[in-house]
């Protein structure tokens, strides 16, 4: 865990340096920290999307008819991934771990249902490729997940 913590701190230093180079001290420290936290969340989201899509495509490439199973497995593992990174690094949740993971799965449950409905609609009704549909679906569900996590799960 110490290695991950050091790596995370290095990443945040790089984000701060890029902000400073681009904006040349035009931001307050408070605003800069908010931007860093959003960048942190986006990195976690990208990592979770990779986990989700990797699971999805592995299962779909074995059998294309199992796209909903692929989405479900990817969902469970990607939420667990998000919980780990968000709790330990983004929002640094030190207490109420059980309550936080329950709220994390509950909040992602909404977007899981939304994502399944979108996939079904795109693949079975609109005949969009099951290889393309999850990419479209992620564009909708990611901002929803961010808002729910920030405002409800971690209350910031």
Protein architecture, described:
It is a single chain. The protein is an all-alpha fold and 156 residues long. The chain has one domain. It contains 5 helices and no strands. Helix 2 (29-62) packs across helix 5 (133-153), helix 3 packs antiparallel against helix 4 and helix 4 runs antiparallel to helix 5 (133-153). The chain is globular and about 50 Å long. The model has no long low-confidence stretch (mean pLDDT 88).
Entry keywords:
mainly alpha; 83% helix; globular; 156 residues
Low-confidence stretches: none
Shape: globular
How would you classify the helix and strand content by structural class?
mainly alpha
Q: What is the percent of helical residues?
A: over 70%
Distance between the termini: 24 Å
Mean pLDDT: 88
Rg over alpha carbons: 17 Å
DSSP summary: helix tally: 5
Please state roughly what percent of the residues sit in beta strands, choosing from under 5%, 5-15%, 15-25%, 25-35%, 35-45% or over 45%: under 5%
Number of domains: 1
Largest sheet: none
Count of DSSP strands? 0
Order of helices and strands: HHHHH
């Amino acid at each position: 865990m110490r290695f991950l913590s050091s790596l995370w701190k290095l990443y945040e230093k790089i984000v701060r340096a890029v902000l400073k180079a681009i904006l040349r001290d035009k931001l307050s420290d408070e605003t800069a920290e908010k931007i860093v936290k959003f960048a942190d969340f986006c990195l976690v989201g990208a990592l979770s999307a990779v986990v989700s899509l990797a699971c999805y495509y592995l299962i779909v490439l074995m059998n294309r008819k199992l796209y909903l199973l692929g989405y479900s497995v990817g969902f469970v593992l990607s939420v667990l991934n998000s919980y780990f990174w968000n709790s330990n690094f983004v929002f640094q949740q030190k207490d109420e771990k059980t309550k936080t993971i329950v709220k994390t799965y509950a909040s992602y449950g909404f977007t899981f249902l939304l994502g399944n409905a979108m996939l079904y609609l795109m693949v079975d009704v609109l005949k969009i490729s099951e290889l393309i549909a999850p990419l479209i679906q992620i564009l909708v569900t990611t901002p929803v997940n961010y808002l729910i996590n920030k405002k409800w799960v971690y209350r910031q």
